[in-house]
Design goal:
This protein is mainly α and 125 residues long. The protein is built from four helices and two strands; from the N terminus they run H-H-E-E-H-H. It binds iron/sulfur cluster and zinc ion. InterPro entries: 4FE4S_WBL.
Length: 125
């Protein structure tokens, strides 16, 4: 029995590829899954075999609720699985950036309007 992956892009079975979720779904219905799982060595790294995602550094990648394997370094403080696609970065840095952006924007605007605004002497004349 031949595996379904033989006729499809091999990249999908490489961890980190956008086709990973599809690869996992294909493995789930593959007729060769049993034989594939038996053939798969424990030391597989960075690939998906028989519906299991093997991490680059060894071990099995947990599957995020979005369906993609979570190949990030595991965060011990986090109890839920969040893949790189679902992980939302801290917004603190972004808030600072926003503050800096508007501070610069208003500074430039003040400078620009100060050049064109009539001075007190011009107004008096
Ligand atoms: S179960 Fe094995 S043979 Fe089948 S698609 Fe997945 S990796 Fe390929
Ligand atoms: Zn996810």
């Amino acid at each position: 029995m031949t595996g379904l992956c033989l006729t499809l892009p091999a990249d999908w079975w490489d961890l980190g590829d956008d086709g990973n979720r599809l690869a996992l779904a294909i493995c789930r219905v593959c007729p060769a899954r049993g034989a594939c799982a038996a053939d798969t060595a424990e030391a597989e790294a960075g690939v998906i075999r028989a519906g299991v995602a093997y991490l680059e550094r060894g071990g099995i990648a947990p599957i995020c609720q979005c369906g993609y394997p979570d190949d990030k370094r595991p965060d011990p403080r986090r109890t839920t699985v969040l893949c790189r696609r679902c992980h939302v970065p801290q917004v603190r840095a972004w808030r600072q950036d926003r503050r800096r952006y508007w501070a610069e924007y208003y500074r430039r605007r003040r400078e620009a309007t100060a050049d064109t605004a009539p001075t007190t002497e011009e107004k008096a004349a």
